Amino acid sequence: MGDKFLTPYEGSMAAADRCSLCQEPAVIRGREQAERWCASHLITRLEDRVRGHIRESSLISPGDHVAVALSGGKDSTALLLILTTLLPEWKDVSISAITVDEGIAGYREETIESAVRLTRQLGIRHSVLSFTDLFGKDLDTLLRKNGSRERACSVCGVLRRRALSEAALRIGGTRVATGHNLDDEAQSVLMNILRGDLLWLVQDSSSGEPDCFIPRIKPLARVTEKEVVAYLFVRDSYRELPECPYAGSALRSEIRTMLGDLEHRHPGTREAIIRSQEKIRKQVPVRSSSEHIRSCRRCGALSNGEICQACRLLDSLGS
């Protein structure tokens, strides 16, 4: 809600409807009050922002094999398009796509088809790993028992993280890149505050992990959701896809609505939330250590306890 789409065909073409950089018809307002971007400058500005974030945060290094978590949705699609565009600039870096098929009937089939179509178009190696192959059951089956549907997002989150790590290991990935955008990051901060979860407020899947785990990176963390959508539109890559049937009952859905309203009424709210998190992290540093890491005695995966989180979760679901 913070960024606003413009259409040059509504009324007269006033100066406010033209790109701030070249006077071509604008397609989106930037974050600054007087900033407008045409299609061409939208593409270059977003790609420049992602490039800058990758460099400043040292997200990708020479010799890396980046495994892009490609769900087939808008964020991961934009991520793969941008990284593929930037790839020639990086020395000895390769990109592959990995897709996790959770097994959500009426939803996953269409998004996986979108992912397959995109990787074929780009000529990118693509691997798909299913929950059934890894855990013996798909998500729908796992959630049928004990009223587990209400826990759908938390269950899926734990198992999906494991599946992405396993998929990346199987292809020799050295980084897992996810499509989390600025809105997602701000939502996560608010969720952790509301839950009173200090650990995840100062540490997430892209920080504080022991060296033995594959690092996770978020190249789109400085890009808003609406900028992602606009980018896909002007690159003719936007596809209307179904929403996950479990998403409506998630806390994130309520936080998304609340934060969208706050951003609309108080522009800059998202950035302020992220800055606050960064200040907290500086005061409460999390040191990465692998001294307590061992192999899970159930599945053999790396874990900070005798039984890994995924196996404990599967036990609680009666799997």
Describe this structure in words.
The structure is a single chain. The protein is an alpha/beta fold and 319 residues long. The protein folds into two domains: 274 residues, Rossmann fold (3-Layer(aba) Sandwich); 28 residues, no CATH class. 45% of the residues lie in helices and 10% in strands. A five-stranded parallel sheet has the order 5-4-3-6-7, with helices on both faces. A hairpin with a 6-residue loop joins strand 1 and strand 2. The longest helix is centred in the middle third of the chain and has 20 residues. The radius of gyration is 20 Å and the shape is globular. The protein starts with 27 loop residues before the first strand and ends with a helix. The relative contact order is 0.14.
Beta-strand percentage range = 5-15%
Fraction of helical residues: 40-55%
The number of helical runs is: 12
How would you characterize the largest beta sheet?
5 strands, parallel
The mean pLDDT is 86
Could you tell me how far the N terminus lies from the C terminus, measured between alpha carbons in angstroms? 41 Å
Fourth-level CATH superfamily of the largest domain: HUPs
- Please indicate the count of domains: 2
Over the alpha carbons, how many angstroms does the gyration radius reach?
20 Å
